[in-house]
Amino acid sequence: MLTGLNHLTLAVTDLPRSVSFYHGLLQLKLEATWDSGAYLSLPGLWLCLSLDPLRDSNPTADYTHAAFTVAASNFTALVERLCAANVQAWRDNRSEGASFYFLDPDGHKLEAHVGDLASRLQACRDKPYVGMKFYP
Predict the structure, then answer these.
(1) Does domain 55-127 have CATH number 3.10.180.10?
(2) Strand 89-91 with 99-103, pairing
(3) Three-state secondary structure of 75-124
(4) Pairing state between β 2-12 and 45-51
(5) pLDDT for the residue 107
(6) Where is the VOC domain (predicted)?
């Protein structure tokens, strides 16, 4: 049912420093920034940097997670299968596209997500985050 890695979200404590590292040093393409985050990309990779003060005090409580792509037509069946297996959810969906956030048996944070970077950027253009800027 999963069709690929959707995106990687990294919780960061200093957003400008992280943008400088990933965009300036590693040369990922800067797609958008806002007051508490940034979207960057490489071919086949969507990277989200998310400012998260919990990262300093408790690294396991932050928003860092790996997301997998799931087709809209398979989303409900996947979530039902995970819930039937008593897989623990760790967050409610607050963003564009259907998502189910869940833990693997070792507590790694995962997400099944319908959508992609293009659909997220369009949703952000329609309703931008605070301080959002888009880049060519």
Answers:
(1) yes
(2) antiparallel
(3) HHHHHHHHHHCCCCEEECCCCCCCEEEEECCCCCEEEEECCCHHHHHHHH
(4) parallel
(5) 77
(6) 4-115
- Positions of the chain with pLDDT lower than 50, given as ranges: none
**Those residues with Cβ within 8 angstroms of residue 63's Cβ, 6 or more apart along the chain or in another chain:** 9, 11, 50, 52, 54, 91
**How many residues in total does the chain contain?**
136
Q: Tokens 């919780």 — which residue?
A: 11
Alpha-carbon 112 to chain mean position: 10
Question: Catalytic residues, which ones?
Answer: 111
Q: Are 68 and 113 in contact (CB under 8 A)?
A: yes
For 13-41, how does the pLDDT look when each residue is reduced to its tens digit (9 = 90+)? 889 989 998 898 878 899 999 999 999 99
Name 122's Cβ contacts closer than 8 Å, sequence gap at least 6. Answer: none
